[in-house]
């Protein structure tokens, strides 16, 4: 079992390998993390782990609030995640490589990272200025018939795009824009579909590529059928994710 210890960045979203993650970092615990990452030589990867939050807050409360207006806000690296942060997070996440870490004049950071490898969360350490975690790297196994499933998912995904964009909107991607490597297809489609976080988490932690693609094929067919029955839907830019306010 290959394990690694990395800084931990919890979010209310799921990061997939190969997908880009823009971050607007303003909380002190994550600013401390970025300052530490900047100590890494530029020719080496500046890695941290992203996990989806199961129970807690992406941004810790910074002022007294309900129901007790006199309660003091939490401080520290695990603020907002309860007494046992390990239980607050999903157990499978993704390593991110920060290609850009730019500090602004006010001390906040603009970060652009890319997901690389799936990992399983083994333990969380809150003793420092930011959370760190011991992680087990998860291999991506192809599974049975991944190639054929990927082609079916791509066809279904194009139909889903057209329905979601609307009859008068141009297609959001052409065939030339889409990959054909099964694992890449599975992650791109998982990230691009308009799904809730638990469903995206289920896709991330699928046991192999073929299992993920089978699940996506069912989801695409179901979602396309639902969209077809609705009178209208707004267009979505499927291949972008919102910048985290963290």
From TrEMBL:
Lineage: superkingdom: Bacteria
Residue numbers spanned by region Disordered: 59-83
Transmembrane segments: none
Native organism: Streptomyces cellostaticus
Keywords per UniProt: Hydrolase, Protease
Stored SUPFAM superfamilies: PUA domain-like
Listed Pfam families: LON_substr_bdg
Domain Lon N-terminal: 6-224
Any one of the GO BP annotations: proteolysis
Protein name per Swiss-Prot or TrEMBL: ATP-dependent protease
Record-level Gene Ontology MF annotations: peptidase activity
PROSITE patterns: LON_N
């Amino acid at each position: 079992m290959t394990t690694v210890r990395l800084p931990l960045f919890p979010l209310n979203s799921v990061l997939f390998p190969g997908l880009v993650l823009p971050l607007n970092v303003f909380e002190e615990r994550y600013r401390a993390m970025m300052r530490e990452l900047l100590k890494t030589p530029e020719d080496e990867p500046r890695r941290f782990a992203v996990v989806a939050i199961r129970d807690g807050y992406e941004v810790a409360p910074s002022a007294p609030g309900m129901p007790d207006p006199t309660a003091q806000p939490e401080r520290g690296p695990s603020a907002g995640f309860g007494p046992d942060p390990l239980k607050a997070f999903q157990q499978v996440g993704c390593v991110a490589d920060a290609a850009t870490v730019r500090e602004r004049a006010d001390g906040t950071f603009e970060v652009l990272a890319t997901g690389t490898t799936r990992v399983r969360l083994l333990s969380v350490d809150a003793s420092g200025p930011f959370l760190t975690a011991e992680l087990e790297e998860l291999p991506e196994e192809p599974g049975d018939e991944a190639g054929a499933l990927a082609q079916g998912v791509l066809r279904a995904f194009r139909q889903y795009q057209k329905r979601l964009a609307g009859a008068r909107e141009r297609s959001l991607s052409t065939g030339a824009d889409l990959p054909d490597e099964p694992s890449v297809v599975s992650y791109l489609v998982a990230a691009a579909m308009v799904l809730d976080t638990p469903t995206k988490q289920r896709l991330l932690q699928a046991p192999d590529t073929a299992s993920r693609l089978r699940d996506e094929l069912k989801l695409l067919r179901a979602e396309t059928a639902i969209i077809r029955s609705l009178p209208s839907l707004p267009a979505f830019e499927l291949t972008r994710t919102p910048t985290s306010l963290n």
